[in-house]
Amino acid sequence: MPVRRARAVGCDLVALTEVADALAAFGDRYLTRIFTDREIAACTGVDRVARLAARFAAKESVIKALQIVDDATPLREIEVVSDAPVPRLELHGTIRARAAERGYTEFGVSLSHTDCHAMAVVVAE
């Protein structure tokens, strides 16, 4: 009989205006508090705000999949890596430890955006 693996799903939707407003108000302080250096480097060009918003949605989706409620979550410990044709997630530090405690070692992520919203879906196994 096959072994059934634990699975959790999280999703999030972000208005691009929220990210644009945060960038306008806080600039680099916002970027370095939320995103890793690799994420910032991957989010350039005309789609910069949409790419950042999709990554923010992915971070929130991980938190939802792990069912982290009322605890501080260092968002820089959740990283969307874009070094392949399909984005992937890397967890670091306390977030990685919390995922392992819950039995989750593999994560899938899907990102999308339109002219006004970005979204992400995360599956943890």
Automatic annotation (TrEMBL):
Domain of life: Bacteria
Residues covered by the 4'-phosphopantetheinyl transferase domain: 8-103
InterPro entries: 4-PPantetheinyl_Trfase_dom, 4-PPantetheinyl_Trfase_dom_sf, Ppantetheine-prot_Trfase_dom
Keyword entries, A-Z: Magnesium, Metal-binding, Transferase
Pfam families: ACPS (PF01648)
UniProt keyword Magnesium, yes or no: yes
UniProt protein name: Holo-ACP synthase
Source organism per UniProt: Skermania pinensis
